[in-house]
């Protein structure tokens, strides 16, 4: 999927399913941020479920990361050559952290009057057995 003219396209994905998509910015959430997958009550849910979103967005560092990513996207857009920007956000399976952060980033960008689209590449895929 392409970004809107001079807009942003964000893709969430799971490293455990396939290689990261091509992007200007790729963010790997696997090591530094708590994984809802470890909680059996959340494991089979997705970012569509409020309990998963709450767990991810209350993780220390995540709100700051989302704000910093929005500012980074704004910096790209401030450059002298207008062009679409692609952002890829990954976690282990693409069902919890990546999808939640991608959606929250798009919401933040919309609040900054920056057009953004989101695609969740692996949200529909089965839970990765670890």
From TrEMBL:
It holds the Pfam family PapZ_C. This is RNase adapter RapZ. Residues 8-124 form the RapZ C-terminal domain.
